[in-house]
Structures are given as structure tokens and as C-alpha cells.
Automatic annotation (TrEMBL):
<protein>
    <submittedName>
        <fullName>ABC transporter permease</fullName>
    </submittedName>
</protein>
<keyword id="KW-1003">Cell membrane</keyword>
<dbReference type="InterPro" id="IPR050250">
    <property type="entry name" value="Macrolide_Exporter_MacB"/>
</dbReference>
<dbReference type="InterPro" id="IPR003838">
    <property type="entry name" value="ABC3_permease_C"/>
</dbReference>
<keyword id="KW-1133">Transmembrane helix</keyword>
<dbReference type="Pfam" id="PF02687">
    <property type="entry name" value="FtsX"/>
</dbReference>
<feature type="transmembrane region" description="Helical">
    <location>
        <begin position="269"/>
        <end position="293"/>
    </location>
</feature>
<feature type="transmembrane region" description="Helical">
    <location>
        <begin position="362"/>
        <end position="382"/>
    </location>
</feature>
<feature type="domain" description="MacB-like periplasmic core">
    <location>
        <begin position="4"/>
        <end position="231"/>
    </location>
</feature>
<keyword id="KW-0812">Transmembrane</keyword>
<dbReference type="Pfam" id="PF12704">
    <property type="entry name" value="MacB_PCD"/>
</dbReference>
<comment type="similarity">
    <text>Belongs to the ABC-4 integral membrane protein family.</text>
</comment>
<feature type="transmembrane region" description="Helical">
    <location>
        <begin position="321"/>
        <end position="342"/>
    </location>
</feature>
<dbReference type="InterPro" id="IPR025857">
    <property type="entry name" value="MacB_PCD"/>
</dbReference>
<keyword id="KW-0472">Membrane</keyword>
<feature type="domain" description="ABC3 transporter permease C-terminal">
    <location>
        <begin position="272"/>
        <end position="392"/>
    </location>
</feature>
Length: 399
């Protein structure tokens, strides 16, 4: 009995290892999904740079500056673009602007935006609201500020919604405060967002557009759309077809694809290691059954002499292997789930730690359990075959 219990421990620990590995891999995958929540996985950012090749009479080093009409051209010619949000930034040589309020200042990034930008890089609003279409249509002098901007311009506990801040001599009323997502933070938390149309009038930017945030339709490769965008813009701005520096771009899908590939490989490796660990545990059960068959030689001989067929003897041994393996596997599964629950309680609620709901899925459990039982059947056949090879007359002579 004690020997059987020790043998079952091998399967118990093997199942614990398998479930912990798979659960941890799933927890990391869920953690990355949480970490990057709010950023469109199929997004693309495009901006103008300087040419590196002379073309059509233009010298190299020419600065490419986009116009607002480019957004309409791209949306019209590339149906795979789901969202295109033009952006423009007000900045000095340091990339920031001094924002004033009652003698307090903040060196903040100031963006002119359309509401659609929130569909690509979601802002977590702490208070108030984000920009809307009414702000655009009426060129309202409103703004949304980051938490860091609030801390620099307001005293702790001060009400900000409805209060005015001043940017380059123009007053804007605060309508919202946001905190950035804990992922790829494009704008930072010391930033001010104002309606694009208001930006045009307040800072005399005309039809200029700084850059574009783009979301591509699902199931459409982002690099495909990126190449189309560059072809259209190169043709419009007389950029050499081989010039790779004139148009800057950043494909966000590359990051998500790399993370997905990493977690997929991690899950596969965890399953591979776990299954071989489980196989070692099942082999231990096979060994104990071989010893059991040796010890029960007389019993098997008597049963054979009384008419038990080889199939009946085989079935008994195989059923014993299945019962021992399944019971030990379920015990190991229960222990592993308990450990994962504790880990989730300790780390799953953290904002920055990529470990959320580290549990195996139902399909993973079903596949693991079926494989475990299947292995127990195959391994159980070894002692079962040994048992049916025992001749009744020889078994009865055993002492």
C-alpha cells in the first residue's frame, strides 16, 4: 500500500508540474493582454521625415510635411483602413510647451487631435470626458490633461474640470483628466489634448498635419497597408521610390505578433515538458504493476485455471493502471489549481506585473487528462501482457 502511494506521488507531482507550467504560461499571456489593453494591436503610426535621395529636381534632405487632405486621400484609396486619426503637435526644440495656470507651469506635450485617436490609444479617464465631435465641429477651446500635468498646474485636491489653463496665450477649459495605460505609452502623462480644429485656429497651423494614427481592419496585415500608404505618399510628394527615410512609420502589430509568438512557444514548451514529466510518473506506475503481477502470480494462476480468459486478466491490470493514474492526476490537478489561485491572489491584481488568471483552459485540461489516461493504458499493457503469459500450471506451483 505504501509502495503504491509513493508511486502515485510521481504522477501527482507530474500533474502539478504540468498544470503549473501551462497555467503560468496562460497567466503571462493574459498579463500581456492586460498590459497592452487599450492599444489597438493592428495600429500603425506614420509621420514625415527628411528625404535621403534626390528626385525630380529636389535635393536630398527635403522635409516632408503632410496636409490634412492626405488623410482623406488615404482613407478613400485604401479601404482596409478602419480608423485614421490626423494629429498635430505644438512643441519647441525640446518637444514640449510651457503651459500656465495661476503662476504654476508645466512643460507639456500639446496635441491637436480628433476623437478617433481614443480608438487607437485609449485613455483611462480619471475625471471628466475626452474630446468629442462637437468640440471639433465648433472648435471649442477645451482640453484634456494628463495626471502629471494636473499635479504640476493644480494643488492637490483642487478641482480641475471647468478651470482654465493657458497655452501660448490662449485659454483652454479643462474637460477631462486621464492617466495613461500601463503599456506602450505614446503620449505620456504630461500631455494636453485639444480639438484639431481649435488647434488650427488658435495656433495658425492651417492645413498642416503632423502625423497619423491608423487602425487597420481585422485580418488585414498591417505591413500590406503600410506599403500602400507609403506608395501613395511617395507619389504625391515626389519622393524617390527607394527612399526609406522620407516617411517614418511604426507598426504596432509587430510588438503584438512577437508577444503572441513568444507566449505560444512558451505554452508549447510547457506542455512538452509537462507531458514528458507525466510520462515518467506513469512509467513508475507500470513498474509497480510489474512487481504486483510478480507477487500475484498464484492468484493469476488460480483465476486462469478457473476459466479467466487473457482478456479478463489484461483488463484487470489495465483498469488498475487507469484508476491509479487518474486518481493521482486529479489529486495533482487539485493541488496545482490551489497553488495557481494563491499566485493569482498575490500577483494577479498588480498593475504592472504581467501575470493574470494563471489557470489552464478546459481544452488544455481535457487534452492533458486524455493523454494521461492514454499513456496509462499503453503503459498498463506491459504488466498485463506479462500476466497473461503466466501459465496456470506454473503459477500454481509458485511458492
Amino acid at each position: 500500500m505504501f509502495r503504491t502511494f509513493l508511486t502515485m506521488l510521481g504522477v501527482i507531482f507530474a500533474m502539478i508540474i504540468l498544470v503549473l507550467l501551462l497555467g503560468s504560461a496562460n497567466g503571462m499571456s493574459n498579463g500581456f493582454n492586460k498590459l497592452f489593453a487599450g492599444t489597438a494591436s493592428n495600429s500603425l503610426f506614420v509621420w514625415g521625415q527628411s528625404t535621403s535621395e534626390p528626385y525630380k529636381g529636389f535635393e536630398r534632405g527635403r522635409r516632408i510635411r503632410y496636409k490634412l487632405e492626405d488623410a482623406d486621400i488615404l482613407k478613400r484609396q485604401i479601404p482596409e483602413i478602419e480608423v485614421l486619426a490626423p494629429r498635430i503637435e505644438l512643441a519647441n526644440h525640446r518637444g514640449t510647451v510651457t503651459v500656465y495656470r495661476n503662476g504654476q507651469t508645466s512643460g507639456s506635450a500639446v496635441y491637436g487631435d480628433f476623437p478617433e485617436i481614443d480608438n487607437i490609444t485609449k485613455k483611462k479617464l480619471v475625471e471628466g470626458r475626452f474630446l468629442n465631435q462637437t468640440d471639433i465641429e465648433h472648435s471649442k477651446k477645451v482640453c484634456v490633461i494628463g495626471e502629471e500635468t494636473y499635479k504640476l498646474l493644480f494643488d492637490k485636491g483642487d478641482k480641475a474640470i471647468g478651470e482654465d489653463i493657458r497655452i501660448n496665450g490662449v485659454y483652454f477649459s479643462v474637460v477631462g483628466i486621464y492617466k495613461p495605460n500601463n503599456n506602450i505609452n505614446i503620449d505620456g502623462e504630461n500631455a494636453v489634448f485639444i480639438p484639431f480644429t481649435t488647434f488650427q485656429k488658435a495656433f495658425n497651423s492651417g492645413d498642416r498635419m503632423g502625423w497619423m494614427a491608423i487602425a487597420v481592419e481585422e485580418n488585414t496585415p498591417v505591413p500590406f497597408v503600410e506599403s500602400q500608404i507609403k506608395s501613395i505618399l511617395k507619389a504625391k510628394y515626389d519622393i524617390h521610390p527607394d527612399d526609406e527615410r522620407a516617411i517614418g512609420s511604426f507598426d504596432m502589430s509587430e510588438i503584438f505578433n512577437n508577444i503572441t509568438a513568444f507566449t505560444t512557444v512558451l505554452k508549447g514548451f510547457s506542455f512538452f515538458v509537462g507531458i514528458f514529466t507525466l510520462l515518467a510518473g506513469v512509467i513508475a506506475i507500470s513498474n509497480i504493476l510489474l512487481i504486483t503481477v510478480k507477487e500475484r502470480t498464484q492468484e493469476i494462476g488460480v483465476r486462469r485455471a478457473l476459466g479467466a480468459t487473457p482478456v479478463i486478466v489484461k483488463r484487470q491490470i489495465v483498469v488498475e493502471a487507469i484508476v491509479l493514474t487518474a486518481f493521482a492526476g486529479l489529486v495533482g490537478f487539485a493541488v496545482a489549481v490551489g497553488i495557481l489561485s494563491i499566485l493569482d491572489a498575490m500577483f494577479g491584481s498588480g498593475e504592472n506585473f504581467p501575470f493574470v488568471q494563471p489557470m489552464i483552459s478546459i481544452p488544455q485540461f481535457i487534452v492533458s487528462f486524455i493523454l494521461m489516461v492514454g499513456l496509462s493504458v499503453l503503459i498498463g499493457l506491459l504488466p498485463a501482457n506479462r500476466a497473461v503469459k503466466i501459465k496456470p500450471i506454473d503459477a500454481l506451483r509458485e511458492e
